[in-house]
Amino acid sequence: MVAGSSARNVQVRAVDNSKTDDKSGGIRQMLGMKGANLETDPWKIRVQLTKPVTWIPLIWGVGCGAAASGHYEWNNPTMIAQMLTCMVMSGPFLTGYTQTINDWYDRDIDAINEPYRPIPSGRISEADVIGQIWFLLLGGIGTAAILDVWAGHDKPIMIGLAIFGSIISYIYSAPPLKLKQWGWAGNFALGSSYIALPWWAGQALFGELSADVMVLTVLYSIAGLGIAIVNDFKSIEGDRAMGLQSLPVAFGVDTAKWICVAAIDVTQLGVAAYLEFGLQQHTYAAVLLGLILPQMFFQAKFFIPDPIANDVKYQGAAQPFLVFGLLTTGLAIGHVNSMADSVAAALPM
Fold this sequence. Notes:
The chain is an all-alpha fold. 77% of the residues lie in helices and 0% in strands. The chain has 15 helices and no strands. The chain has helices at 2-17, 23-31, 42-49, 55-69, 77-105, 107-113, 126-151, 157-173, 184-206, 211-232, 236-241, 247-251, 253-278, 282-303, 311-346. Helix 14 packs antiparallel against helix 15 (311-346).
């Protein structure tokens, strides 16, 4: 009886959502955003499952890693092609895999929070979803293998990163671990996937992936944890109903919003201090600080007053500054690596 009632509720809510059937709804459908049209074209539904809007941070992270390598040549056609291929691996393939498998294991929660999504609305079959998961996973790992050969790596580091990231994606969404139900662990895994992993891929493709940079990017992922908390506010109803301990559910809205803000701001301020005092990159440190201040302004204006109503508005206003801060950090590290290579080359053999 309950299941039947739930199914009818999903159908009704999904039909109500079809009122947004206009150009905006079509764009939202293709990007995998809320307010999407109820598309029936199977290929558009497949694209929607991969949530292309979420590819952007991963694609950007690859560019930041390439910049941090100190070896990337921005006008070299071969390197440009390699970086674009790495972006396809990180974005459409592996992020698409992550989003599809997440939707598959979240289908019961989405029936409450987002019933118009392709799986709970019944617009794509189980077999098609499973097939898409395998296609994207194997496509990402296969692309990583191509990159290892293309870059002349002695060890298959790109394959290793692709497999590692895929495992993190799986245990984030799938039982029995399902990290996303454990608040801190899930949000940090998500933040690391969006910041550290694509950075590592870009840097490893064109240079050496050093331990200090790996530590820095993992710490930088604490800011990603904050971004993940922002996304949790829209799902409080469904998370509470399904017993998931997201931070807004576990700590309440008021406490969670301050944890979120602290994770984003303190992390970036720490990185700016490292650029200034650790690497002596004064200009880059000043630029990064200049990119942090607008984020604080938008937190005070939008997010802190009402994180549930203003989550999308806040992210749209603040996140461009955060991602340019990532690039600034990558360029600073790349400058240090480039100078170190120049000094080493100048030393007598």
